[in-house]
Write a structure and sequence with these properties.
Number of strands: 0
Protein name: OpgC domain-containing protein
Distance between the termini: 35 Å
Order of helices and strands: HHHHHHHHHHHHHHHH
Shape: globular
Keywords: Membrane, Transmembrane, Transmembrane helix
InterPro entries: UCP028704_OpgC
Pfam families: OpgC_C (PF10129)
Organism: Herbaspirillum chlorophenolicum
Length: about 375
Amino acid sequence: MIKFPRPMAGGRSLEVDFFRGVVLLMIVVDHISGSMLGQFTLQRFAIFDATEVFVFLAGYATAAAYTAIADEKGNEAARWRFLQRGWQLYRSFLLTVALMLAMGLLFTALRLHAPTIEYTDIGTFIHEPLQIGVEMIRLARQPYLSSILPMYMLFALASPVIVPAVRRRPWLAVAASLALWGVAPLLARLLPTVSPTGWTFNPFAWQLLFVIGVVCRLHPLKSYQREDADAVLRRRKLTRIAAAVAVVFLCVRMFVEFDPGPVFKQNLSSLRVGSFMAVLWLVAMMVRQGWILQLAERLPLVVTVGRNGLVCFVSGTMISLLADILLYLATGGRPGNWSGLMADLAAIASMLAIGVAAQAWKDYRRARDRRAHGLHAH
């Protein structure tokens, strides 16, 4: 059985790692064409999908990590750590792109065709490797699932500005974030891109959810013990409103013909924000009741995936791509529910195995560093 230390103040949250693990698994199955489990993920029942949850959790976790470092070692150490994080995310983007190209090249050399192979940009890369390579290095070309990493890189680099601003003046920071979100489609023209539609995720828009995550970590709701009668009534009223909004969006998603198009997601439409905020409030109430913590303690492997988010995300892009291609080839492009379920289970098992391996490697390095530190001390 995998055991985890209890979450510490200012440190990691078991619930956040659990949610992040769930979202990473959702992202994998959502990008397998013919997935059976993909028919029951968030994108089937809400106007938003796993991306909103991931960005919000990134803001929440960033605030926790940044303030913990700043309080222990100073603001300069925190700033330097997140500059390093930005560089790490950039390298992860390049690694993801390289792995996609390698996989695309492999299947192209084997003369095996599947629609998803085209998403790797291997066709254009083979004809113009130097030009396409430079475009990828300067983030102007972001094939397939790698497109979310450049946005995260920018958020990491902006964290030394965002986190202290939210900590000191939360309302002003939120107002500035809302203003930036409002003009995001105009600012998107400043981003390097070879696509006429721009980046898949406009960071000037999506920063709103990142900032909301930072706010929720640094300025949490009061505990039940400190609530007066009026606060309890307001909370219950907000819960009813959030539930009603969530049900309305659920009905729209399930029973109304709704095809918003890529721009709806690219610039983080207000409908997506509203739908997400309603569900966020309901989930926050579940967290306060302790239900999510109990669930997380019963599913430690999912928590392990969340705790190794970057490794599992990069691996997950390859897993979903490979599962999608193999499922297409095995079924002639017409997967059934059982074949789709088998692909889902194989992909999930692979993600869990990678999470465990990444955690074991991390624990080994920590133990090795402690031993080395002990030898130097003596």
